[in-house]
Amino acid sequence: MLKLRQYIMFLLIVLALGSCSKYQTLVKKGSPDQKYKAALKYYAKDDFYHAQQLFDELIVLYRGTNKLEEIYYYYAQTYYKQGDFIISSYHFKYFAKTFPNSQYAEECLYLSAYCKYLDSPPQNLDQSNTKSAITEMQLFINIYPNSSKVEEANKVMDELRAKLVVKDFESAKQYLTTQYFKSAIYSLSQHVKDYPSSPYKEEAMYLIIKANYDYAEKSVLRRQEERYTAAISAYNDYIEKFATGKNHKLALKYFHASQERIKKINKQTIKRTKI
Known about the structure:
The chain is an all-alpha fold. It has helices at about 1-30, 30-45, 50-60, 70-80, 85-100, 105-120, 130-145, 150-175, 180-195, 200-215, 220-240, 250-275. The protein is rod-shaped.
């Protein structure tokens, strides 16, 4: 049994060396047509690495010919099949621009955007690539509004936009956690404005009340009244839209507390005036 395994291993090594030798001979001495046929065979066998090396050379050899279109298409696909989405996105877009009348142009423009979607990072990281993916997918829809891929493209954009909403809300909340109250108030307000259908809208509007109240609590006496007043105003905005929101009881506490603080400040002011 051991000898049989050793024999099989020996055969595999011999075959691998033979294959490698064949490939090297093809690269050094093969004609363009031989390399082209071999590249397609490698591609068909899912050996995208060797196919890519040959297509890379063939792009130069067939530049200015009718074959370049198909060669470049497969070349872009080899990056995609190997999971190199950044480079494949670039090549797919370049293909769509260079060969706009190609039978592959629509597919390539879609894949260019889809690769950026696949490269979109988790929501806790910078979302520049996510925004770029949305832009590219919208470009595809604008150019091919009747494409069978439009429905899928819209679903992808919805998913990407949802990620941006989460990122934006979490970033705004972080300002409150770190007690940058002014930034928190601005960011939470902007979130409500930029994403009117946000699933976090109710919580964001409640946190605006809290941020204004906490800001007032940490402020010098002469600035407190206006900031408690801002908390009351934020409460009125909240209750107008979410009278029975999940945070309405907490919001009401901040509302009453703000009113009490203002009364106290006014009493102190009157007392000082009399003195």
